Amino acid sequence: MFKDDFVWGVATSAYQIEGRDADDGAGVCIWDEFAKSGRVYEGHDGSVACDHIHRYKEDYALMRLLGVKAYRFSISWARVMPTGTDEVNEKAIALYRDMMKEMIKNGITPYITMYHWELPQALQNKGGWLNEDLIGYFGEYARVVAENFSDLSEHIITFNEPQCFIGLGYLTGGHAPGLKLSPKDVFQITHNVLRAHGTAVKQLRKYAKRPIKIGFAPTCGVAYPYTDSKEDIEAARSIYFGFDQPINNWTWNVPWFSDPVFLGKYPEEGLEKYKDYLPEITKEDMELIYQPIDFMGQNIYNGYFVRCGKDGKPEYVGRPEGFPKTATNWPVTPDALYWGAKFLYERYKIPLYITENGMSAHDWVSEDGRVHDYNRIDFLDKYLSSLQRASDDGVDLRGYFLWSFLDNFEWEKGYSDRFGIVYVDFATQKRIAKDSAYWYKEVMETNGKNLSINGTRTKGEILFVNPVSKQEADDRNNRSASEQADGSNGAAVGWHSGCIVKEGRCAGKSLGALWTEKPELFGNSDNSIGSAFPHPDDGRYKQWTLEIDGSAKIEQEYPFLIMNVIEGDGLINGQYIKKGDCFILPNGFGTAEFTGSLKITVSSVLFG
Fold first, then answer.
1. Which structural domain range is residue 493 located in?
2. Cβ burial, residue 407 (10 Å; 0-12/13-18/19+)
3. Helix count (H) and strand count (E) of the chain?
């Protein structure tokens, strides 16, 4: 499980959920203009979104009921300072203060993000982030945030995903403000944003009403090793922190955005590769960027395979056909969370929060009025189990914020993607907690105890194994008896250590290894599987033959069933089985549904 003080939370951003009101005093932001230009899916915009500015009290009450204790949200610069500078919208100050008071009232710790892409259009009209004056304007905004909100929020993040809002907004043009500038201009923008970060940190420290914790939340896909070999790990690390991106899409880079903030310098490889595009970078610039901060946030959704090639150089490995994808066609790669956290912590050695992670699914309201999103539960279980591995390996992980609490406005995709654990009917603004919300509630309450890495969910998996002949079983059993006489655990290392699980989460594991590592798979046993496999004949087993013609259900009577298909073929819970297959239904598996024409021997281990 995770550490006792691990922070579990959810995340959203202002433009994606807030909506507008004719009398709210907010200024126009670049996403208002981008949506008006017709470049968002089906003409959607954020004018209503989730109507959060009118419904936040109910939303925070819902968070409380779902066990949420921390909430990462953003403040809209354009709402607080309509022109981006000078004038402060007091209605916005009052609104955000009341929001945070409501969070605290509901037992929720606020985590502020200062900039989640809501640049005031008035500043874009002055050149946007290409204008160096924005460095000072952002510092002014930081002062307003510190003076008005630091008494209510101890944690403040300066920027969210600079790779995205710079690369997609100014290089490729897919996001607001929708520009396609030269690489030279985009490098200048990046340098300006990083200097704005440093300026904001200084202002936050200066004007905060109490000691605060400041962070920075970049992103990027994770290069992770194709195998666990030392060579593949080093190859993946070199790509993750390298400069393999083409110049027309160069912003999808980790070290150019993070090294200056956390190490105080731009990486030498990038300085050399990009020297023809770089602005003047002074010693004073680097000192400004490299302000002491308290934590690193990282948004991680997926990754890609890298291995060491035959020539000793890193090479990319394509995903096999039919590789799992989310509704956004993003690959499902749980190992990215393990390797991303591990690589980042090894390089930067600063406490780490996963500030975004989640998936879009094709969710809808079912006949029973519920939203059954098991695919999201399985996704989160895999990713969080991977994250726990990183924590177990010594990464200083402080928290995890699931993206997202509500289905919301997903930027250029409008309302076509649903990332939330709470379903939003955008026509009526009705909220429905999805099945994943209740599952995540248990994760937060148990500190991850219900994750499959801790044995809770894995026990429901059918374990297909390679069967052992009667003679081999007898031979192995004799060796086991000898080992036990020597004082070793024969049950763990005896005959059944040769029965290897063929597929699934336990693939490659022997029954002996699982007996030792995950005893909960096998029920409340006496730590002895038996003297023979797969046809036991002693008093510790109940054995019968099951004949199926059409369909049948078995309600598991005992915690550990061994099944051998001796004739025919068919399905078990949708999986194809045939003559010669041997499998185990572990503890708590529940109902097994068979279809086909089958003859199966069934053995139940008797305990007690």
1. 459-605
2. buried
3. 19, 19
Last residue of a domain, one of 403, 426, 448: 448
* Residue 112: pLDDT over 50: yes
The token pair that represents 324 in the structure block: 């799992």
Q: Could you tell me if 418 and 519 lie in one domain?
A: no
Looking at the structure, tell me whether residues 184 and 325 fall in a common domain.
Answer: yes
Q: What is residue 474's predicted lDDT score, i.e. its pLDDT?
A: 55
In a shared domain, residues 359 and 285:
yes
Q: Looking at the domain assignment, is residue 307 inside a domain?
A: no
Q: Look up tokens 């100014």; give the residue.
A: 170
479-511 per-position pLDDT tens digit: 544 443 433 333 323 334 557 888 777 788 877
Catalytic residue among 18, 118, 356, 461: 356
Please tell me the distance from the alpha carbon of residue 315 to that of residue 242, in angstroms, as a whole number: 13
- pLDDT tens-digit series, residues 384-435: 999 999 999 999 999 999 999 999 999 999 999 999 999 999 999 999 999 9
356 is catalytic: yes
Report which DSSP code applies to 320.
P
Task: Clarify whether residues 497 and 365 are in a common domain.
Answer: no
pLDDT digits (tens, 9 = 90+) for 204-247: 999 999 999 999 999 999 999 999 999 999 999 999 999 999 99
Burial of 544 (C-beta count, 10 Å sphere; 0-12/13-18/19+): exposed
Residue 533 has a pLDDT of 38
Task: State yes or no: pLDDT of 131 exceeds 50.
Answer: yes
Percent pLDDT > 70 in the chain is 87
Please state, in angstroms and rounded to a whole number, the distance separating the CA atoms of residues 341 and 352: 8
How many residues are there in the chain?
Answer: 608
Nearest to 517 by CA among 525, 526, 506: 506
Q: What is the pLDDT of residues 260-319, one digit of tens each?
A: 999 999 999 999 999 999 999 999 999 999 999 999 999 999 999 999 999 999 999 999
Whether 415 and 351 map to the same domain: the answer is yes
DSSP category for residue 318: P
Q: Which residues pair with 11 in a beta bridge?
A: 72, 403
Q: Kindly report the pTM of this predicted structure.
A: 0.86
pLDDT at 464: 86
Q: What is the DSSP string of 31-99?
A: HHHHHHTT-SGGG--SSSTT-HHHHHHHHHHHHHHTT--EEEEE--HHHHSTTSSS---HHHHHHHHHH
Conformation bin of residue 308: beta by default, left when phi > 0, alpha when psi is -120 to 50: beta
Our answer to whether residue 367 is catalytic in this structure is no
Asked whether residue 81 falls in the same domain as residue 60, the answer is yes
Partners of residue 305 on adjacent β-strands? 224, 317
Please compute Rg for the chain using Cα positions.
Answer: 28
Judged by DSSP in three states, 381 sits in: helix
Domains held by the chain: number: 2
The catalytic position among 161, 410, 412, 461 is 161
289 and 193 share a domain? yes
**pLDDT beyond 70 at 535:** no
Residues 473 and 407 occupy one common structural domain: no
Residue matched to tokens 């600079």: 162
Per-residue pLDDT, averaged over 331-339, amounts to: 98
**Structural contact between residues 194 and 253, judged by C-beta atoms closer than 8 angstroms:** no
Contact 388, 2 (CB under 8 A): yes
Percent helix, strand and coil across the chain, each to the nearest 5: 40, 20, 40
User: Of 448, 475, 491, which residue constitutes the final position of a domain?
Assistant: 448
